[in-house]
Amino acid sequence: MDVPIVRPEFLQPPLSPDLIARLTAIVGDKYAVTDAEELAQYLTEARNLFHGRSPLVLRPASTAEVSAICKLASEHRIALVPQGGNTGLVGGQTPHSGEVVVSMRRMDRIREVDTASNTMTVEAGVILQTIQRRADEADRFFPLSLGAEGSCTIGGNLSTNAGGTGALAYGVARDMALGLEVVLADGRILNGLSKLKKDNTGYDLRNLFIGAEGTLGIITAAVVKLFSKPRSVQTAFVGLKSPADALKLLAISQAEAAGSLTSFELLAEICVDICLKHGTDIRDPLAYRHPWYVLMEISSSRDDAAATVEAVLDRGIRNGFVGDAVLAASLQQRAAFWKLRETIPPAQKREGGSIKHDISVPVAAVPAFIAEANIAVAKLIPDARPVPFGHLGDGNIHYNVSQPVSGMTTQEFLARWQEVNAVVFKIALRMGGSISAEHGIGVLKRDDLPGVKDKTAIEVMRGIKALFDPLGIMNPGKVL
Amino acid sequence: MKILVPVKRVVDFNVKIRLKGDGSGVELANVKMSINPFDEIAVEEALRLQEAGKATEVVLVSIGPSQAADTIRTGLAMGADRGILVTSDEPVEPLAVAKILRAVVEEEGPGLIILGKQAIDDDSNQTGQMLAGLLGWAQATFASKLEVDGTYFNVTREVDGGLQTVRLKRPAIVTTDLRLNEPRYASLPNIMKAKKKPIVVRAANQYGVDLAPRLEILKTTEPPGRKAGVKVKDVAELVSKLRNEAGVI
Q1: What is the pLDDT of residue A27?
Q2: Is the Cβ–Cβ distance between A39 and A20 less than 8 Å?
Q3: Which residues of A, range 121-140, sit inside 8 Å of B by Cβ?
Q4: Do B13 and A285 touch (CB under 8 A)?
């Protein structure tokens, strides 16, 4: 696919050897990457949709170094692209037109774990999984969880306001941050590493940077919230007839478990098919096939998770909206259920071209959305295979469409990307939904944004951008 | 033929083990406990034999604290018929376990006992062998395949050099290895049914077995942390390190 459409105003003029030397001096020779082979890992991403171009990757070790980089960059109008684990799905982390990449991965210190305030102060480059493990060691729980957690960084999670599987009970990345330390475009350091839940002293600057995808400044550290560890967790893999039945199960699960319902993932049958076909050590959890599946998890502060899951599913079976269900008897079985869920994206990759949608609609509209989108896509490309899955509890469906089994090359199929997007987005928007639930805008959806977002909102966003980044050097060409 | 399957409640395989502050043992407070994975394989094998018409009843027995009833329920939810819980609040060592099991065997009269080859908490790998010795029964340990042939069992064992097949006369004892089968998941309807299946509870001291531990734990320590790796410049350096430092070539 030919996404990045680089607009002329974002083209970075070639850097002089002198400027490269001065930028390099800030981080030291060892941490400035110019070698083409070494640069490659910063310029491409997992989906292979974007191929970036950059003369230089800087790997600062401290907030002071990031500040010095920004200061020099604004003096000489050098465009910067902040990057964490390079796992973004919309090209926000990629330098599309010769910008300098600021890779935050070396800033990977955990500055403090405070079990009284229930907070952890982390630098931007700490890997999400490291935070989860460190919280666990302190007998606490950090609920942000997503497929890329072994390689994505908390800085990237916050910059993109990541969602993931824990959002149902704990919210998205924004809800897990209390304070931020940010380096502004001109090099000034905005120290907002507050642990306070209550702090009404003016505008909430923190929330401007969360979800800004690096267009307003570079997040260098954050105070994140820790939660008490659930005492019991019960995971179930459920087979059912339709998304509407899944909604009924969701309703009674929420009624029974309230805030303890921590995951509720919907999977179409084809998801299980492709995972069995391409995954390793994956088995069909249920005795026979079902058109739809739900992976649900209840995490309780008491010892009652299993009893609650059993009660809910028993009711579902007796009332006919649950076909069958298995419960994880051990953490290994739990991991096997989740492995199936996490294998969908890589398995889909091996099914050929995939046109992606990360939409959200009001929860009640999910069944109608999937039904209408299936019809609309079939009209455009009759044998295309929708592979819908996602976080039903959040109304967030990854409505991905795999190419037909035969009769079309991957290239021919992907050439229809914008066309398929247009009809799917239209349906989501009509239902009061969003075209980007958790992956962000980046470059992939930048040109779609003005068409779907409130005009005044776009104006205000442009105003904020101009205030924080008057020279337009912070991740140019992204979001707006 | 009745099959008896002993099952043990252990710290879940995926839990990261932590030591108690005083080094006296492993921290068990608020730790997820599950059925010993090798015992789960034993339950699965027994159920498959029953489903194939080779066994009439699958009886589970667990020796441990009262919560070991949950472990029996896990096996009942997989499909076993009933359970016997022998309660003991103190840890019971393999010889005492084997002696209690001998008493259970005398009451139940199974034609086959399938046990996990070892429990993943103490890794003793003794109970099956001791029980075979006490009963004077044939035994096949580390089974990766089990076939019933009339009143005989053909058991394939995983041994160092490869696979060995032995033929045992009933009654016999088989201990399971990982590759014997892949245990099924418990379905909700079967979990609900399992709640109604009977579990008989007995106190361990009713069996007239000396439960006093014969071993004393002196201390428990964590394994040493992994050392950081080193980069080598070239093949010659790698070979030299493998030969002179690691001593593996």
Answers
A1: 97
A2: no
A3: 136
A4: no
Q: What is the pLDDT of residues A423-448, one digit of tens each?
A: 999 999 999 999 999 999 999 899 88
Residue A5: per-residue pLDDT: 55
Q: Is B230 part of any domain?
A: no
pLDDT for res A8: 65
CA distance A78 to chain B (A): 36
**How far apart, in Å, are the Cα atoms of B61 and each of A148, A417, A474, B87?**
43, 59, 66, 11
Q: Which residue of A has its CA nearest to B186?
A: A326
Q: Dmax over Cα atoms in chain B, in whole Å?
A: 68
Give me the count of residues in chain A. 480
Could you report the per-residue pLDDT of A377-426, keeping only the tens digit for each?
999 999 999 999 999 999 999 999 999 999 999 999 999 999 999 999 99
Strand, coil or helix: A197: coil
A130 touches A123 (CB < 8 A): no
pLDDT over 50 (residue A3): no
Q: What are phi and psi of B178, to 5 degrees?
A: -60, -35
Amino acid at position A89, single letter: L
- Mutation to test the A interface, candidates B66, B121, B184, B185, most A Cβ within 10 Å: B185
In the predicted structure, residue A221 carries a pLDDT above the cut 70: yes
B21 within some domain: yes
> Residue B128's domain spans which residues?
2-224
Residues of A in contact with B188 (CB under 8 A): 236, 310, 313-314, 317, 322, 324-327
| Residue in chain A nearest B33 by alpha carbon | A330
What separation, in Å, do the N-terminal and C-terminal C-alpha atoms of chain A show?
21
Q: How far apart are CA A67 and CA A188, in angstroms?
A: 6
Model confidence, pTM: 0.87
> Can you tell me the mean pLDDT for A248-276?
94
Residues of chain B whose pLDDT is less than 50?
none
Residues of B with CB below 8 A from A334's CB?
14
A258–chain B Cβ distance below 8 A for any pair: no
Apex CA A351: angle with CA A347 and CA A356, to 5°? 80
Judged by CB atoms closer than 8 Å, whether chains meet at A331 and B40 is answered as no
B96-119 b/e (C-beta count within 10 Å ≥ 16 → b): bbbbbbbbbbeebebbbbbbbbbb
Residue B207, domain CATH: 3.40.50.620
How many other CB atoms are found less than 10 A from the CB of residue A327?
A: 25
Other C-beta atoms lying within 10 Å of the C-beta of residue B199: 17
Q: How far is B14 from chain A (nearest CA, A)?
A: 6
**What is the spatial distance between Cα A160 and Cα A84, in angstroms, rounded to a whole number?**
11
For chain B, how far is it from start to end, CA to CA, in angstroms? 53
**Closest residue on chain B to A136 (Cα):** B16
**Residue B13 belongs to some domain of the structure:** yes
| Total structural domains within chain B | 1
pLDDT band, residue A6 (cuts 50/70/90): low
Please report whether residue B240 resides in a domain: no
Other C-beta atoms closer than 10 Å to the C-beta of A132 total 17
ipTM (interface pTM)? 0.87
**Range A243-251 average pLDDT:** 97
Q: Report the chain B residue with the minimal C-alpha distance to residue A314.
A: B188
